[in-house]
Amino acid sequence: MFQWGWLGGGIDNGATAPVDPWIPLMLFALLFGFSMDYQVFLVSRIREEWRAGAGDSDAVARGLARTGRIITSAAAIMICVFAAFVLGDLRVLRVIGLGMAVAVLLDATLVRMVAAPAVLQLTGRANWWFPPWLERAVPGFLAEVGPGQTADSAPRPAPHRINDHSIHLSKEGTS
């Protein structure tokens, strides 16, 4: 829009000019940070449902149902804030604002609400696989610590063998 002057009159774009080369890099870095919040929130809720005993498909459906409105609301707020930058005087802020508004819209709707749950649904139990070498490197990482527990006393998922690779798939959290 800014490079070729599309919708120039609608957002007072003025003369066409190339987009500064650092702007796409900045947009990517900012969007990556914002989108990870959504992803951690969504996947954490799906994992909580799975640990509570829901099947793979049910965990994805329940996690998405419980976080969808929150993610969509947060994205709508961010879209409004970034879209407000388009009304400013500085061309750089208008480019960043429009880019971030469109990117957050696409990320929250297509990636977090459609693609991520679809991939989690397709991969099933493999979502919760944890490399054995990483468990040895970070002991207690898989332990979920409850009130009055330490990481050493918390229940740990039991490893299961599939194709001679130790993976953690237990829903009960017992050893």
Summarize the structure.
It contains 4 helices and 2 strands, in the order H-H-H-H-E-E. 57% of the residues lie in helices and 5% in strands.
Category by helix and strand content: mainly alpha
**Count of DSSP H/I helices:** 4
Quaternary structure of the protein: single chain
Strand order of the largest sheet: 1-2
The parts where pLDDT drops under 50 for at least 5 residues are 158-168
H-E string = HHHHEE
Major sheet? 2 strands, antiparallel
Helix content: 55-70%
Integer-rounded radius of gyration:
22 Å
What share of the residues does DSSP label as strand, in percent? Answer: under 5%
Ends apart, CA distance between termini: 57 Å
General form: elongated
Structural notes for this entry:
It is a single chain. The chain is mainly alpha-helical. It has 2 domains: 22-127; 132-168, no CATH class. It contains 4 helices and 2 strands; from the N terminus they run ααααββ. It has a two-stranded antiparallel ribbon. β1 (159-162) and β2 form a beta hairpin. α1 (22-51) runs antiparallel to α2, α1 runs parallel beside α3 (91-123) and α2 runs antiparallel to α3 (91-123).
